[in-house]
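Q: Give me a protein?
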Amino acid sequence: MARVKTFFIALLLLLIAAAGALWFGWNSLNSAPERQAMTSELFTVEQGEVVAETAVDLHEQGLIRSPLFFRVLSRIQRVRNGNGTIKAGRYHIRPGSSSLEIYKLLVEGKQELVKITIPEGLTARRIARSFAEKGITEESGFLDAVHSSDLIRKYQVPADSLEGYLYPDTYYFQQDYPAEEIVDHLVGTFFEKLEEIRERAPGQLNPEELHRKIILASIVEREYRDPDEADKIASVFYNRLEQNMRLQSCATVVYAMTEEKGLPHPKRLTYGDLELESQFNTYIKGGLPPGPIANPGYVALQAAFQPAETDYLYFLLKDQEAGRHVFSNNLAEHNQAYTLYIKQ
């Protein structure tokens, strides 16, 4: 009887020891590797990748201790939960994450997103800088994507750049996201919004005709302050084009100075600035500039496609605070407005 009792005690101790060893081994393999990284690390799961490949990649990147343990863990979780498919994507894995925590993150597919708001009227260069400041993509990579021949061909843009087609809006992207995919998304959104506007605007346009409207919309974007006036400003430019008058848009001069010549943004344009030699300077060059001077939003695009029906040829800012303009049909009226609102 004593021998039986001793046997069961020994067996119990052995089971406890085995359970302890198993628990210790599980915790050891499940815990994060000892490494110095203090910030989250980017990890990518490619489309169609199997668990074994993911486990190896995690181990090589120093995020888990054992690829075999990760595979066993995934099998256990699939049996317990019925669904344990790892989702493709780009993930930020926090330091100290266990294998189980990483596995759950990849199965849930919760990818950390960064919010970015692109205001109307920015140039591609300034948009690129905003994405870089948010850590979403590099500035140079973004600008390269703006000039991507593949994307330009995809959207049938008759230019060497997608300037003017980067739709201003609020977006959510993962950090370190491919620049070309970002630009593709912005341009795709642009054409979606444009389709809404074109449903209300009669007539079919070829890519060159569409591009000219985008150029004009970009000028309207930089000129209007009050949304209610955007279609009137568009009408001024269309009327001037019809009469072979120079557009004389101050916004095009600013673009030539800052984007083409690399000069600082002027607080106020001088008469000398208006004589700046540039194809974008519509004070000295006739017709439209060679390309968009900004990336227009919905209001400016709608104004370019549905301008007001007016005889206006001039406009002048009369209320700096409210951003309101006075519109004139001829030079005499314009000079009167100048005397009334500027020289007073």
